[in-house]
Write a structure and sequence with these properties.
Enolase-like, domain 1; 2 domains; alpha+beta; 18% strand
């Protein structure tokens, strides 16, 4: 695979929200990277301290190329943490790894503040109510509770910025959950 192909991968189902920011979970970033280049490796640089704050760095070698990235140890508001403990440093290293993996194209659009890969964006704005209706149809096709959880989770993740859309899919989920519970009682 090359950069152009890797940047087309939609990783939205693997992202997490912390505060107002969206992150690609490092576990999924590593998984996608290794699926496409099993020989990929990474390593962390020395922690650099600036007064009471710290900066971590990471290098990822994949596809015969090395990319480097750095990241301050930050809280969920992107503010540097004073005197970070080992847990905060470790968490930042893993976020730095995900950010470095993004340099190969995997989830790079997340760091640009986009919700979708650039080639997946239509010319017209996305109507979240239309998407909610589509998700409601998908929710209605769930065959069991586990499938319902997966579909609802994906729908919620995609629509979480719109309270009306979330209310619509939540109502559809609750109705389907009741229907499935009734079927299992028979």
């Amino acid at each position: 695979m090359n950069y152009k192909e890797l940047r087309q991968i939609n990783v939205n189902e693997f992202t997490e929200r912390k505060g107002s920011l969206t992150y690609l979970s490092w576990t999924y970033g590593v998984d996608i990277l290794l699926q496409n280049d099993p020989m990929a490796t990474w390593e962390w640089g020395d922690i650099v301290y600036f007064n009471e704050t710290a900066m971590v760095s990471c290098s990822v070698t994949a596809f015969n190329k090395t990319m480097k990235m750095q990241l301050p140890v930050m809280d969920n508001r992107n503010q540097a943490i004073k005197n970070p403990d080992a847990r905060k440093i470790s968490d930042s290293q893993m976020r730095c790894l995900a950010k470095c993996i993004a340099c190969f194209g995997i989830g790079l659009y997340i760091y640009a503040g986009s919700d979708l890969p650039s080639d997946a964006i239509d010319e017209e704005p996305i109507n979240l109510q239309d998407q909610a209706n589509t998700w409601c149809l998908a929710i209605d096709t769930a065959k069991d509770i586990d499938e319902l959880k997966v579909i609802y989770g994906n729908a919620y993740h995609q629509l979480s910025k719109d309270k009306t859309a979330v209310a619509k899919i939540s109502a559809a989920k609750d109705a389907k959950k009741s229907e499935l519970a009734t079927q299992s009682d028979v």
